[in-house]
Design a protein that fits this description.
The chain contains 5 helices and no strands. By secondary structure, it is mostly helical. The longest helix is centred in the middle third of the chain and has 27 residues.
């Protein structure tokens, strides 16, 4: 696979991590109530993990002479403003599953590019662990 193709895939991976629904909600501040501190702390940790991965992806793109394309948040994310955290946890699980499927596709497409594929595989493992946390939070009573 040509390096340009890998850079395009890395940019897609960057966008998934940098423009996730969880990252959006970090700034949009869903409505919370007493007793959701554990969930808000866990979400902050996941968002921080995702942002740390964006740095690593950006460094790899930059080291290859590529240009980082951060994309933008989907417009429909604005529909989630001020929704309750307990509702948004279920939405986060759905989005996380979609993002994981996309990362699996990217890993497969990176095939021969070992360095990029290994980074994508690491991100995939991290996002699968995040999904487990989100699923646990989504089934806990508010």
């Amino acid at each position: 696979m040509a390096q340009v193709d890998s850079i395009d895939l890395l940019n897609r991976l960057f966008e998934i991590e940098h423009r996730s629904l969880l990252t959006y909600l970090t700034d949009a501040c869903p409505w919370t109530h007493s007793g959701e501190e554990k969930a808000t702390t866990a979400l902050a940790h996941i968002a921080a993990d995702q942002q740390a991965m964006t740095v690593r992806i950006a460094e790899l793109i930059d080291s290859r002479g590529g240009r980082i394309d951060s994309g933008s948040f989907p417009m429909y994310f604005t529909d989630t403003n001020l929704l309750s955290l307990d509702f948004m946890l279920r939405e986060l699980v759905k989005h996380q599953k979609h993002d994981i499927a996309e990362i699996v596709r990217i890993v497969a497409m990176l095939g021969a590019d070992r360095e990029a594929r290994e980074l994508a595989e690491e991100i995939l493992g991290s996002e699968r662990a995040h999904l487990e946390v989100l699923e646990d939070l989504a089934i806990q009573p508010a």
